[in-house]
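quick q for whoever's on today - can somebody do inverse folding on this one?? i tried earlier but teh output was garbage lol. tokens:
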């Protein structure tokens, strides 16, 4: 089975975004990570390499102090090596399009924990940057729903523990860590099902 044959011709890409608030139109995107899901010749799903960026807040962006306290991001730290939304999304979209072409997929589909949140920020940033977005504009695969169905949990940390996936609370709320763990969870659930 090819990846395109599993989800209507879509390429699953796990995305996590850390932000300066909850409003995708006004609040800053501060960090993003994307991991494409692959499938081997035995039909086993696995996470491929990650694309991870720290993001400069767009001009006029809101930065809610409670959001920054929650995710621990210091936007003024020079070691963040932050780039513009356009640069980060341009690289992620380029990688996704190359994989879509390789795998003969028609669109990318965002996989995320509370996926609608990440999709909203992804589209708001791509619109600001005037970039054509390869992700489906409203369809997602939400690991909240998958975890509720499969493990009886909706909180990512709790779902990980029930799924016997290693989880470190101290590393949580980093886009890189959360994306890697969400990708593991997605693959574990999909690999447990036989759809052939």
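ok took a stab at it. sequence:
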């Amino acid at each position: 089975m090819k990846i395109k044959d599993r989800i209507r011709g879509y390429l699953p890409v796990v995305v996590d975004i850390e932000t300066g608030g909850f409003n995708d139109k006004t609040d800053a995107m501060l960090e993003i990570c994307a991991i494409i899901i692959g499938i081997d010749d035995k039909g086993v799903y696995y996470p491929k390499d990650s694309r991870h960026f720290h993001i400069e807040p767009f001009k006029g962006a809101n930065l809610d102090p409670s959001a920054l306290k929650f995710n621990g991001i210091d936007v003024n730290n020079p070691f963040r090596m932050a780039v513009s939304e356009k640069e980060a999304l341009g690289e992620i979209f380029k990688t996704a399009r190359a994989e879509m072409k390789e795998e003969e997929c028609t669109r990318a589909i965002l996989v995320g924990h509370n996926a609608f949140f990440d999709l909203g920020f992804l589209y708001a940033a791509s619109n600001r940057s005037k970039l054509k977005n390869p992700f489906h504009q409203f369809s997602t695969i939400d690991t909240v729903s998958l975890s509720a169905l499969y493990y009886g949990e909706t909180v990512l940390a709790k779902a990980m523990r029930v799924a016997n996936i290693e989880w470190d609370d101290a590393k949580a709320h980093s886009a890189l860590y959360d994306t890697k763990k969400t990708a593991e969870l997605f693959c574990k659930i999909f690999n447990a099902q036989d759809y052939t």
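fwiw Residues 33 and 52 are 4 Å apart (CA to CA). also The beta strands are 10-19, 29-39, 45-54, 107-112, 135-142. so keep that in mind when u check it
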